[in-house]
Design goal:
59 residues, alpha+beta, 4 strands, 24% helix
């Protein structure tokens, strides 16, 4: 999970795109559009510093 968060934060800093942490079973990744992965659980948005904002707070 740490690798996915680190890479998501890097993409957020580099391109300014919103990045989201997602999970499917034991697999963690990030995406720019969580609607593309309906079977994955949205854990939250990752900010540029690598903090995860829980999905309940993501608008």
């Amino acid at each position: 999970m740490a690798d996915a968060i680190r890479e998501a934060a890097h993409m957020r800093r580099k391109y300014g795109w919103r990045t989201y942490l997602i999970r499917f079973r034991d697999y963690y990744s990030f995406t720019f559009d969580p609607s593309l992965f309906p079977d994955f659980e949205l854990l939250g948005e990752v900010d540029a510093e690598g903090s995860v904002i829980p999905s309940s707070a993501v608008k």
